[in-house]
């Protein structure tokens, strides 16, 4: 067979749905022969998936398909067919059994694919490896294989989001809890004689390393490693890059993984002796349909279904999801939170109410709002998902979407919040827009990550991707991950001050020395600025000078556990003026009126600790946002971005700067720990802080707090949960208990 003809013949077979079995047989014989050449591998896997997806019952076709699967070394395709309803029962030879055994671990009994085994073997040789491979490739499966085959004592797995962290935590806890203490909390007691698998976000890992300065990591993993790229210029890349730098420099073995990365900082790899492997094999194949509502109007064939594309994206969406020939669940991407919710709500009128999770609906009505459109959506098998939503609600939504029963969600509208490695059962992905949150055109990496959600290994051979707008064919496909202190011509001081002195070289060294000399003149110690990680350095210096020269320290001084409202306002005000960036303020809290609103809401939250519904219905929030959905989004964002993240970070920085100046002036120091805990966790009790750090929402934490009163770390929480489970069950609903099971 001429390789160029494979796609043509495959399309003909798909059109007839494989009814001409002699044609399918000849095609599979040719694929079997082509598998002799590694250069044809990806194309052959594509053909295998498409034929397998037809679910043909012909015995000869099944035997030939089996033979191709064995030769491809993706043995789990056979398991998928055995679990289908086509009576798949090919003849299995002793050679087939031997080959599968060769790719099956004697330790974990896991069967690897050919590319997975190549990665595992490479790691065992080099111990420092970066792997770029598509979604559903099984990169994380290799982590478990590495752990099983090596004698590591302290293992750290860095995940980009709390949702992905929770999913991985449950998997590793189930597999490795006999040997390791498996934890996803930074509030854990590290004991020298014990062995650990710690699954943490970069932020939690930073806290853990700060609290355990002598902790020795033997092996670490970072998922979605592209998030360390300084070109992202977001709020998190420096935290990712800092953890990557510190763990890599420690000498630990490492396995860095991410999808669709064309290159990873050559300077960084050379400096730390890291090898990179790149794969483009799609274990779950994708069919792409360009249904641009402007340039692709007319009739389109989708696996035998006829769809007419018109000049209205919403009508096109209805036609696709309304066609019974296009099976599977739908993930529908929109680039803004409001658009996600609006489109989900618009679909409400098209569907009938169905069996739904009444316990989840009751939980959301009670703890968020009865008028939230998500409540109405769930009743009709629709949901939405975006980054402003609390993590536990995001996870509950994914659980509903992943249900195989008729009760779950069939249509999930989302932003990029769902593209960072979170597994779902979507067979169909619709890119309703080709933009990102700021309205710019979507970049190749983001788009591929969204496309990668189509189809899930062990459930689908194929996923479908629908574009509702035109794709630019000339777009730059390169996704080169670059590390700021290595690859940027002008790295920021916030990055440089965190580096080991020996790693600041060349032009960076010259600029850094000028900065150090200026600090000496200003009599500001470097450790002061360095301790306030990634807080704007010019803002910190301005705060020191302001407190020295203009500041009446009495404006900020208090000796009680919590300052009065006037003093807290003074503290928040100077932080806003000198440490907040324009990006921190955003559109909601810029200018004097915006500042006043933010400070008032923060004081309200600190002094009254309102529940979510009470904060949602406060006068200020009602004034700032007129509709229920927009108020809910605003309140989510207010809590997660400002109260739990931004204010604690900046208040800690203010405290250290104030106390430095107070010591200079022979004045008394202050402690803002109580305020920080109230904002970050909603409590100041240590056992409740541990529960909140594990991901337990405030409303559940309050119900069970007394049970965990004597707990001093995450291990204590886990042990108490096991021993007093019956008592806890009586206090919680089914949904609340499910949250507790997932996070503890």
UniProtKB/TrEMBL annotation:
Gene3D superfamilies: P-loop containing nucleotide triphosphate hydrolases. Residues 120-240 form the Helicase ATP-binding domain. It comes from the Bacteria. GO terms for molecular function: helicase activity. The keyword Protease does not apply. The keyword Cell membrane does not apply. Keywords: ATP-binding, Helicase, Hydrolase, Nucleotide-binding. Pfam families: DEAD (PF00270), Helicase_C (PF00271). SMART domains: DEXDc, HELICc. Residues 339-497 form the Helicase C-terminal domain. SUPFAM superfamilies: P-loop containing nucleoside triphosphate hydrolases. This is DEAD/DEAH box helicase. It comes from Rahnella laticis. The lineage of its organism: Bacteria, Pseudomonadati, Pseudomonadota, Gammaproteobacteria, Enterobacterales.
